[in-house]
Design brief:
alpha/beta, 13 strands, transferase, NHTrfase_class1_PyrdxlP-BS, single chain, Aspartate Aminotransferase, domain 1, Aspartate Aminotransferase, domain 2, 2 domains, binds pyridoxal-5'-phosphate, Aminotransferase, 14% strand, EC 2.6.1.-
Length: 408
């Protein structure tokens, strides 16, 4: 068979790069161009963006690494041992899991690459991965890039986006290998409840599957909800790969530090392939990550601000005629059903043109997202600044609602 393109077919779903006319917030130049022109970008899940928010402890640790450390040299590809120890201590403190920093933890340049690394050794071409719909776009794209097949499992908005084991069972075939969750979920902010996870875990064990649990948003779970780490559930430590990030809760996306935690048979392969897949994470960033993970003040301070932001976003947007908002149980994201106003693409386009604000077209998050938009309420340091921008968003949505005859 002759190939007509030098690009492997596994990449056929990758769009929005250099040559494609598709405009998306997180690929290609779209967001960069809009930022240059003074638009507000609420489309990157990046707390406090674009304002300064580097904690003093993290700044000091990185400067100390530059002044007195070895910033110009690699750490081991699997990550600095001091950072892996800090990560293990944190996991013990938050979950009770006793992970060995020399056997169960690998540091990655952000959790996006951690997620791809996590999946790589699990999948042969044609294997199937069950991915809730809606969820983080990489959950689908990564699987395709690896030559495997994402199979979406619908989550029901009317039922609080709960995990429904019967839906997973309907989607399971002989080729199913992996269940991939973003927990809490992006874009809905849903915190999966203990009962749902216990039921899913028992089903995963019964069917001899592996769970990849992306917990990038785990640090800020609100309303006294419980953040359950699936690896702590019966039979799950030996079949769960947990993926973490310092980008979201700690608000340090620019450092590009994530980490993957798993049992020894998985980690044997991750450690072996680290030099090929990971390279090594930035030495200065790892020093900053140690300080961030050890500083007990950062998470509570960020949380207090993000709760204010959530209140502002909800107040301004939940009652717009034609909009149905999902109450964000975690994190920094607001998920809006705009089906009465238009498709997600149409509404996002209207907001760029009329409010000069970039949000995400929900279609990127799965088939059920097509009539939704996602926006990041965690942007800006000040809730007042967010209020100014969302007031423009509200006005633009009200215009659309009026055009659709939804406003008197
Ligand atoms: C669910 C989820 N996982 C992982 C990531 C990647 O984050 P990072 O690579 O900055 O750790 C994101 C970023 O938006 C995300 O939303």
């Amino acid at each position: 068979m002759t190939r007509t393109s030098p690009i492997a077919t596994r990449f056929r779903h990758v769009t929005g790069g250099l040559l494609s006319p598709v405009s998306k917030a997180d690929v290609g130049e779209t967001a960069g161009r809009l930022l240059e022109q003074g638009y507000d970008v609420l489309a990157w899940a990046d707390p406090f963006f674009p304002d300064r928010s580097l904690p003093a402890s993290v700044r000091a640790a990185m400067l100390a690494e530059i002044e007195a450390g070895l910033p110009e040299h690699y750490t081991m590809p699997i990550g600095d041992l001091g950072l892996r120890r800090t990560i293990a201590a944190r996991i013990a403190a938050t979950t009770g899991l006793q992970v060995d920093p020399q056997r169960h933890v690998i540091v990655t340049p952000g959790s996006d690459s951690g997620l791809l690394l996590a999946l790589m050794p699990l999948l042969e071409p044609g294997d199937e991965v069950l991915v809730p719909d809606p969820s983080y776009p990489s959950n689908v794209r990564d699987v395709e890039i690896l030559g495997a097949v994402p199979v979406t499992v619908p989550l029901d908005a009317a039922d609080g986006y709960r995990l429904d084991v019967a839906a997973f069972e309907r989607a399971r075939t002989e080729r199913t290998r992996v269940v991939l969750l973003s927990h809490p979920n992006n874009p809905t902010g849903t915190v999966f409840r203990r009962e749902w996870l216990e039921e899913l875990a028992a089903w995963i064990v019964a069917n001899d599957l592996v769970l990849v649990s992306d917990q990038a948003f785990e640090d800020h779970v609100y309303d006294d909800l419980e953040m359950v780490t699936p690896a702590t559930l019966p039979g799950m430590w030996e079949r769960t790969i947990s993926v973490y990030s310092i980008s979201k809760g700690l608000g340090l996306s620019g450092l590009r530090v994530g980490y993957v935690v798993a049992d020894t048979p998985f980690m044997d392969v991750y450690y072996g392939a680290a030099v090929n897949v990971v390279g090594a994470t930035s030495t200065v960033s790892q020093a900053g990550a140690v300080a961030a993970l050890q500083d007990p003040t950062i998470l509570p301070a960020n949380r207090a601000e993000l709760l204010e932001h959530r209140e502002v976003a909800w107040r301004l947007l939940h009652d717009v005629p034609g909009v149905r908002a999902t109450w964000p149980e975690s994190g920094i994201l607001l998920w809006l059903d705009v089906s009465a106003l238009g498709s997600g693409a149409e509404v996002a386009d209207h907001l760029v043109r009329n409010a000069r604000v970039l949000v995400n077209d929900g279609a990127a998050y799965g088939p059920s997202g097509a009539d939704h938009v996602r926006l990041v309420f965690g942007c800006y340091r000040s809730a007042a600044q967010l209020e100014t921008v969302l007031t423009r968003v509200r006005a633009a949505l009200l215009e659309l609602a009026a055009e659709r005859g939804l406003v008197e």
